[in-house]
Each structure stands twice: as structure tokens, then as C-alpha cells.
Amino acid sequence: MLPPHEFPTLTSPSTLEGTIEDSPPLHLEPFDVAILNIDQSMLPNNLTYGEHYRISVYNGCKPCPLRYQCTGKDSSCLYPPIAKQHENLNQCLKDNRKLVCILADGTPEDVETCQKMVNTTDSSSNNGQFLIFSEPDIKKCLSRPYFCSNSKWSFLSFRRLCQDSLSNGKLSPVYDCADVHRWEVYSRWRDELCCSSVPELRDLDSCEAESLACSSNPLIEDIVRDKLMEVFVLENGFVPPIEQPLGHLLMNVTMQEDRDHENPIDLFITWQSPFETGYSQDVKLHNKYKPELSQPWVQNSGCCLCNSQSMPHFFQSTQNVSGYPDDKHRPIQITISAVEKADVSIAVELLHGRYNAEFNDYFGAMDKSNLRIHSPKRFTEKSSGGMWLAIVEKSTFENMNLDLPLNLPFSKDNNIGESSFDETRFFLDRPSNHSIGFPNVRSLRDVTAFSDPAVVNPFNPASYDDSWSHDFIALPYLPFLSNCDGYDRHISLSRLLEEHPDCRQVDLEKTVPIKEYAFWSKQSISDVCLGILLQCTYEEMVTETRSHLRWFEASPNTKLFYIVSTLIIQLFGNFDTCLHSLSLSLSHLFLD
Length: 592
Known about the structure:
By secondary structure, this protein is of the alpha+beta class. The relative contact order is 0.15. The protein has four domains: 22-62 and 307-374, no CATH class; 64-166 and 248-275 and 290-305, no CATH class; 178-244, no CATH class; 388-588, no CATH class. The radius of gyration is 33 Å and the shape is elongated. Strand 1 and strand 2 form a beta hairpin. The strands form twelve sheets. The protein has a four-stranded antiparallel β-sheet, with no helix packed on it.
């Protein structure tokens, strides 16, 4: 797994089923662009991309371990069986623990606070006031892809052990501290029973009128336990304690941890009823022994449903290059452009067990890649939130009989053979020129070592489609201009204007804007991009006749799309007012 930039030394755990993907996902905000560089120039000659290993990108999920065998039809798998999947979870709980601190009265405390108290000079005075011990890290383990099918977990709380000092000077048996809460639930249920004139208690004076509680007659408890307990268990899902527990925390680290337990998941209390519908009066009682209910249920999609995203064409084709079986033995750059919030996992995966040693030797140290995140910063005074968007209008293509841009987010419906817009969280690209991905490069004209040949994407005819769901499409990149060496198919507007080596930025306080009606009175001072040279390759089939015009066949000065600011859109509230704020005409493009 290629680690996010915050975790450069992260390692992944291994099980008998293969490596478990354990790194946190890469989080991208809207319009963020992740630039990933992978150095494959020193790969062993016979390690071939697509046959022996591959690079995969996953959207919001984690792939199954290598030896899992999914059926391919649904989220089920042929191997391992469900019992083995639970065994993997239990092993994770044994291997991964976290420190907790519990005060003597049963309330949780911050571990750092407890550790500071341990380190005080008068530590003996704190003896017996709190207990620091470890418990299995349930959140970490449930986040791992151990289960083939979808899994859902109720609120889980690691049990706490209590032991009371009895009136006779002896100690009670060790019990689960949750029995304190269970006793409260049972006590209220029993009081309601005593005061509701049930047939079993009709001949007894069972209710205290003032307190609306059971009277002290010992026969009442015997009758309830003998004849009505099945009703309580059916309603609440547990058998209540025989006597009221006092809830004194057992100050014993070894017994609290119970590290030798074969199935640690059994040490967690499942709170499903009565907490499913939210906070109730039961939940408010004995807050110190109930689980943390601020967290939602854990719901994980089965790892068999986790499929890698379609990679750029460069990764789907292979060519022999000067003694290598493929053209991937070189530095490679991948960009991930988010159009909405996304959690992305990026992995280099071994496909052939024969090359396990070579693969681990090369990628195992996790020093063959670097990653940085670009976020738009020059479109608003705020740190984020502003962006320029390219607007493609439906009417343009209706009136001019134009083909749509080939770099629109299209997907093809195989059932009907028609294209439709594919709503996706991010776009994947493979720039052939890596210079823009490296900061502090003075000019592209000074750099030649960062380039490798571009791969022409296969021709994908795009025609006008009557199934437009809106009158326009807003894109954070330039339409029409695709297969460009520094960006591939999606030229991010913010990266183009903020990071291109041939752009110069001016500090906000030094910026001098043009006044609306006096632009001649004072020269403006602002960000400037001059002489940007973009090398792009036609993806259109220029040699064949088309029923629609291609974009470069449009008349000069045709406005193919507009560029507007999201801030302007928010201020004006409609596109009619702001679409003409900035336009790019075909005459501004120089075609070689």
C-alpha cells in the first residue's frame, strides 16, 4: 500500500490470508488534486506490469486480502469460511490494543491525564484512584477488510470488571460492571410490574403507593423470578443479576485485560436494545458503565464488493521497450482530481507469487513513492472553497451540431449501447511530463528529463445525447483539451493557474485590481501566466467523416465554454448574470 503523505513509514500487517490493508485512506476535499510519483526505474527487468503486479486505486473501500476468493457475483466468497473471517478479526483484537484509564468510581479518564498523575512526586497518594490498562482496539479491527459480505456492528463496549466488599467482610465474586445498569433496568421493570396488578401478584400487597415501587415482601421477588422472568428476558435480552451490585471497579490490570482470552470479541458488550432508537432514560442512568453512544454503528461494505477504479489507458496497455517486457520501468506520475469529498486508497499489488521476493525487496521499504496534495488557494481570500469552473452548455451543442468533449465523465450503458454522464468522486490521469508535478521548477522549457512518451488514448466517439439532465455541466478542468503531456485528460484550472512554472503569483496585499469603469486610469497588478506551452495530442479521429462537427472544426470566435468563479455563482445566484464574466474563444487557441 502506498502511504498517504502524512504516514511515510506505514507498514501493513500480514496474515495467513495475505496482507491486510491497514493504512488510513487519503482524504481529498472537492477540487483537491493528489499528485503521486512512483519510481519504477530500478524494478527487476522481468517484473512485468499487469502480469506480475499492478497499481490500483480504491474509492472509499479496502480490498480483500490476497488469498480471499470472491464469487464475483455478489459480496460472498468461496474462501475463507465465515468462521475463519471471525478468527482473523479475533487475531487482530489480540494483536492491537490501546491504553485506557478508568477512575476508581468507574468513570473514564484521559490516559495522558492519568499518566501525569503517575509521574507526580507524590504518586503514592494516587494509589487506588485510577487504573491504566489496555483493551483491544475494536475500531481499528472493524475497519479492516476481514469480511467478504457486508457487516454491521452494534455499539460495542469492552467489558469492565467489578468486585464489591460485602457487609460480612468478604469479597463478592468478580462480575461485569454492566450488571449495575442491568439491575437498574430490571428494578424499574419490576416496580412497574408490582404496581400494575398482574395476576401473579394480585393476592399480595405488592405496591408502595407513595413511591410506586415494589413493597419489601420477599415473596414478590420469588414470584417474579419464578413466573415472570421469561417475559423480562424476552423484552430486554438479558438475565438480571440476583442481587443489586455496587459497581466497585476491580483494580487489577491482568484481570481487566484478560489477554489470554481465545475470542476477544466475546469480551465486548453489544448494546443493541434499548439503544437502537437513540438516547433513552435507560441510557442516561449509570453513565459511567454504559458504552460511548456518540459513535454510530459500524457498517462496512464487504471487501468482495471493493473493486479498483479504471486506470488511465497507459496502465491498460503494454509495449516492449528496449529489453523490458513492458513500458512501466520508469518514473510514473498519477494524479487524482477530486470533484467531491473522497477517501482514496492506493496500492501496488502483487499478482504472481513467484515474484514475491522481488516485489517485497523493491516496494517493501515504501521509499519508492512520494505524494503531495494540491488545493486551490488563489480564487478566494479564504484558505479554501473558491474555484474556477468551466461551463459547458447544452444549447451550444444543440445549435451548432457539435460533438461533445472527449474528456467529459462519460460511461457507456452496455445494455442499450448509449453514453451517459457518470457521476464520480474523482478522475485519474497519468501525465507523461512530470515537471508540473514537481514544485520549484523554473520553466518547462528548461526541463527535459521529466518527460516520457505520451500514450494516445483509444478513440471514443462522443455525440450529442438527448439525456442531458441539466442545461449545463460545470467542470473544474478545461474541456476539449485532453491528452496533454503535463496533465493527461484533465487540465485542472487551479493547478494550471497556480502551479505552472510559467505563472507568476502576487501577494494578495500587493494586488491592484482593475476598476469597473476606470480600467485605463491605473495599471493592474495581479497573478500572470505568460507563454504557457501545452503539448496535447488529438484524441479525435481526424481522418474519418463525422455526422457532427468536432470542436476544432467550429467557426473562429465560437464560444465553446465559459469559465466562471464559484464565488460569483454564489453571489449572483444564477448563471445568466455571470456566464459572460470570462470566456475563452477558439481564436485564442493556437493549433499546431
